[in-house]
Specification:
- The structure is a homotrimer of 213-residue chains.
- Chain A has 213 residues and is an all-alpha fold.
- Chain A has one domain.
- Chain A is 72% helix and 0% strand.
- Chain A has 7 helices and no strands.
- The first copy, chain A, has helices at 9-32, 37-59, 70-90, 94-118, 123-144, 158-173, 178-199.
- The model of chain A is unreliable at 1-6 (pLDDT under 50).
- Chain A binds chain B through residues 25, 27-28, 30-40, 42-43, 53, 57, 62-64, 67-68, 70, 73-74, 84, 87, 91, 94, 97-98, 143-146, and chain B through 57-60, 121-125, 128, 139, 143, 146-149, 151-153, 158-159, 162, 202-213.
């Protein structure tokens, strides 16, 4: 049995906020596909907890996190269903959402890094574990909603996760104390993500239209 | 090593009927996408045994069920290929199919519940294990056929699985003997599902068309 | 801990060539969806190493192969990104690619068979393990790029994997020495695949357009 959340209490709070925000983003995506309330609940669950689930399975880290934390299951399903009622008000909260989502991305990334380090995986696996935790919930959401994952085309998003993981692991290597490391990485990642949204920064895209294979 | 099927012999028979019916539904979906016979066999396999596979992986329950029961692999691949030959006759059997599929849904749900209980997972995980076993084969089928999973939009289906799991666990809590519990849950779930088909009962849907995130 | 690659050094070389070729095919698919460079790297990774990952998880074979071989992760990401630069030259190399891809298919299949045999799974599971290793990277690529997997509709491809697995296991049963077995299976599979491409051999397809379920 492993600790599912790092000891930093602040990160736990942010994690709970993050899965709530992710559940809501899943519910809105389900609504765009006219799903029924069950579909909304499933997509909310998968978006919020799917990234951690894929990470746990890939790392061979059983039991999977949420199976030991039923309260998170209730929370994300409830948040998804609440979104149905509140959807018309949410547009006004767009900016709040983007900040919550950015906080969630970085919290997920740090938690994913930690999970792999606790199991003595190599550094590159810790980085990938962080990114997988951060982005694959959204990828599952998009696959189940039958669209190309937005994370592969949006403003800097996965790159922010990568940046946060590398910064966290570098400061750790330099002997920076865990709580300070977490705070510095969190703040830097958040600023980078918000600047990317504000400036519309994107990675270069690769367009290739020839069909020959 | 865990028992893959519950001890109730009737449930085993229903399970075999169910995976056969699910394999056939997978083969028809593959035919709608003009797949070759290999694709038909894969979709048949995934539809019939994919739900149990996802459940076993999520629960960390290795070896995965079908790897210890090659006869089920042969059965579902054979059923899938037979569907190619018999597809033109199947339309007349529509009502038989719907009943078999409903029986399968509930058998899968009870088997999934049991699997999680045997491993001492919390109750909410047992319910989710039942639903995952019941519906995720069909979700995989739809994702591989590049469409939004019908289970998120159809008449009461996942809800029937949820109902059966909750009824089963409640009666178990009340001390009802296992075989009686299974029979009662099975009959109740089947009636609910057939009434839902007959009456066209659906869950309310959530439609949300704004794009702002 | 299990050996990730068979002892035959030739197969290791072919494996490295194969994951490189698969990574490039993934990158081109990502380019057709106008993904950013991060998306290209992810699809390259998933196409090249996703088949082995799914196999390892299904077999309960932890830690998953690539987590113990960071060099493969670097290789496939690098190959994917290099493809962005070199895409315009690649059309001329079409025939080279098809041969590399065919070699990879068979190498993956033999490695997958071996992995299941080492864990004492039944023969049918070894065959499926070989096919899953061979084809599911491409299936993941196509699902993430939101299209029906080409492997279900293309010229003999999965069938070649099936043929190679059965031949390999039959010769093994007959007591043929491992290196000779590998060489014979490899050559036979490669010839079959290249003849299928050259002759445009396809499996019969199943077209079913009625909607009634």
């Amino acid at each position: 049995m492993y600790s599912f959340l790092p000891s930093v209490p602040m990160l736990t709070v942010i994690y709970v906020v993050a899965i709530t925000a992710e559940a809501m983003s899943g519910a809105l995506a389900a609504g765009r596909r006219n799903m029924d309330i069950f579909g909304v609940a499933v997509i909310a669950f998968v978006t919020a907890l799917g990234g951690g689930t894929i990470r746990d399975i890939l790392l061979g880290r059983f039991p999977v996190g949420w199976t030991q934390h039923p309260e998170y299951v209730y929370l994300v399903v409830f948040a998804g269903l609440l979104t149905i009622v509140g959807a018309s008000y949410m547009r006004r909260l767009k900016h709040v959402f983007l900040v919550l989502d950015a906080m969630g991305l970085i919290a997920f990334s740090l938690i994913g890094c930690n999970a792999a380090l606790e199991m003595d995986y190599p550094i590159v696996v810790a980085i990938m574990s962080g990114m997988i935790t951060g982005i694959s919930g959204g990828i599952l959401r998009d696959v189940l909603c039958n669209q190309v994952p937005v994370v592969f085309r949006r403003e800097l998003y996965a790159s922010v996760s990568l940046f946060a993981c590398i910064l966290f692991l570098s400061l750790r290597e330099l002997g920076v104390e865990a709580d300070i490391n977490t705070a510095v990485t969190f703040a830097s990642g958040l600023v980078l993500r918000l600047m990317a949204i504000w400036g519309g920064w994107k990675l270069p895209t690769f367009s290739y239209q020839q069909r020959w294979d």
